[in-house]
Amino acid sequence: MILEMFILPPPFIIPLYMKEDHKENKWFVSNVLAINTFSAIVLYIIIVSIYV
Description:
By secondary structure, this protein is mostly helical. The chain has one domain (2-51). The protein is 67% helix and 0% strand. It contains two helices and no strands. The longest helix has 29 residues, at 23-51. Keywords: Membrane, Transmembrane, Transmembrane helix. The chain crosses the membrane at residues 28-51.
């Protein structure tokens, strides 16, 4: 379904390519990825329950 593609979280490889001296940015990016993953799961459950 095309809706699934739009709610998927961004890739988790992003923090691996950040420089080591950007500790605060790594923390922020990791938290944003975690929040996006959780919200994507919740949103997917809501969408599936509406359309099924």
